[in-house]
Design goal:
3 helices
């Protein structure tokens, strides 16, 4: 089930999949995300980590809700189970030593964005593989909100990934710059990062 993912990650470091999560899986996650949003449980996203965290709306303007794997809903249990299958498969073929997953719901209200960045803190290289699952039913290109994944070091070659429900994007966190283009209507996703224990990475 995951061989095509690991093959692509081994070959080029990124992959987009539309097969692992069923329509029912995605619908359940969307309902859960929308319910938490209505209940006011999200907070404005920040940049940096620990004491260095700051809200910088000129860089990112989304809101997030961190997920607790120890107390998941049925929808999130399914999400965590599938992501763990990916972790095991990637470790088996790519030897990345992925240990755990941190994840959050992300909501981009109309007009919000996230400027070009890496998913790796300057002083911590634990985040190794990024996984973004989109929850937006019947999303159209004119709605904006695409993730622009830069494929080269100069950030001249890129692929725009539509945030359509059931689309899962995986890429090496410290290697690929990316951004979220301005959304023209509310955009929902689950974003996760597989982490490893050791600090030195080969790229």
């Amino acid at each position: 089930m995951t061989a095509h993912l690991t093959d692509a990650l081994l070959e080029r470091g990124w992959v987009v999949d539309t097969t692992l999560f069923s329509r029912e899986d995605v619908a359940a996650l969307r309902v859960a995300c929308e319910a938490e949003w209505r209940d006011g449980k999200f907070h404005e996203a920040a940049t940096g980590r620990a004491e260095g965290q700051r809200r910088r709306a000129e860089i990112r303007s989304d809101s997030v809700l961190w997920l607790d794997e120890a107390r998941p809903s049925p929808a999130l249990s399914r999400y965590f189970a599938i992501l763990d299958e990916i972790r095991v498969a990637v470790n088996r073929q790519l030897f990345l030593g992925l240990h755990d997953l941190e994840a959050h719901f992300a909501v981009f209200p109309e007009g919000t964005f996230y400027k070009k960045h890496l998913d790796r803190f300057r002083d911590d290289d634990a985040r190794t593989l990024t996984a973004v699952l989109y929850l937006n039913e019947a999303w159209q290109p004119e709605n904006g909100g695409q993730m622009r994944l830069y494929l080269d070091e100069d950030c001249t070659d890129y692929r725009d990934i539509e945030p359509e429900a059931g689309t899962l994007a995986l890429f090496l966190s410290g290697r690929f710059w990316h951004e979220v283009l301005p959304a023209r209507c509310p955009r929902l996703s689950v974003t996760g990062w597989f982490r490893r224990r050791n600090e030195s990475l080969p790229w």
